[in-house]
Design brief:
Length: 109
């Protein structure tokens, strides 16, 4: 088989060799673009994950300490703390909606 390939290449004129080299170069370039596209997509997903994690952490850190306890009540909080908590709760629901929307549009995979 190697001799057949050698004979075929040996029989090519300079135009045929140029076309062969151009085709090989195009294939290598396409493979490189596919690889880079996949790498970029992975990097963007990782950056999005990190950004969402930061936002989630900021929100959770600004909730009252006892928000997950059974006896938690907004009524027992002063107005300033209640307003701040509600602001962060809206930010949390907005973050959840963003993630849901990305999932529905198949962007967040």
């Amino acid at each position: 088989m190697c001799t057949e390939i050698y004979e075929w290449v040996k029989g090519l004129d300079s135009g045929g060799i140029g076309n062969l080299i151009s085709t090989f170069t195009a294939i290598v370039a396409i493979i490189g673009l596919i690889y880079q596209s996949r790498s970029t997509r992975k990097q963007v997903k990782l950056q999005n994950f990190i950004e969402y994690t930061k936002r989630y952490q900021e929100i959770i850190l600004n909730f009252p300490e006892n928000i997950n306890e059974e006896n938690f009540s907004f009524d027992g909080m002063d107005t300033e703390v209640r307003t701040k908590t509600m602001r962060y709760m809206r930010a949390y629901f907005d973050l959840c909606f963003e993630e849901y929307t990305l999932h529905e549009k198949k962007i967040h995979r």
